[in-house]
Amino acid sequence: MFGPRRRSFATKLQRKVYALAYRTAISWRFRNDQLMMTHPQFLEFAKTRYLLALLRKLRWTKTSGGVMFVTGKERKNLFLAARVVGEHVTVKRAKDLKVRDLLMRGRVVIERRALEWLIARFGVDTVARPKKDPIREYERLLKLL
Asked: How far apart are CA 94 and CA 24, in angstroms?
C-alpha cells in the first residue's frame, strides 16, 4: 500500500530562458575562441587516422578538454571516425544538442548550417525598438508651438 511511487523531479524552463542559455553558451565559446565554423563536408573518409592527424595538428587532445563536432545532418563518416577515437571526441546533430553539451567540451566545431539553424531556432525574435523617439517627440512639440 505504501510502496515506492514514481515521481518526476524534472524542472521545466520557459522557452525564452532556454533560448537565452543557448545564446549565452554560443557567445561565450565565441568570445573565448573555442568555437570554429566549418563547411558541411568536414571529413570525406571514415578513417580514424585522418581525424587523429587533424586533432594532433590543431592540438585538440584530451588535455585541452576534447572536441565536439556539431553537424546540420548526420555525417556518417565523421561519426564512424570519432567513434573509435574515444570519449574526448563527440559528434552531435544540431537538433540533438543541449546547452550542457555546448559547455562540456574544450572546443566546439560547428557546421555553418547547424549554426544558422540554432540561430533561427534560439536567436532573438525581434529587436527591441525604443518606445519613444526623442527627436520625433521634440518635433511634435515644436509644431504645437
From this structure: 16
pTM of the model: 0.73
Domain membership flag for residue 140: no
Q: What is the domain count for the chain?
A: 1
Secondary structure of residue 94 in the 3-state scheme = helix
Distance CA 70, CA 94 (A): 6
User: Rounded CA gap, 94 and 29, in Å?
Assistant: 16
Question: Distance from first CA to last CA of the chain, Å, rounded?
Answer: 82
Sheet arrangement for strand 67-71: 35-38, 107-111, 67-71, 89-93
Residue 135 placed within a domain: no
Domain enclosing residue 101, as ranges: 15-121
Lookup result for grid cell 559547455: 103
Spatial contact of 100 and 21, defined as CB atoms under 8 Å apart:
no
In a domain, 67, yes or no: yes
> Rounded to 5, what percent of the chain is helix, strand, coil?
50, 15, 35
pLDDT digits (tens, 9 = 90+) for 81-107: 888 887 788 889 999 999 998 888 888
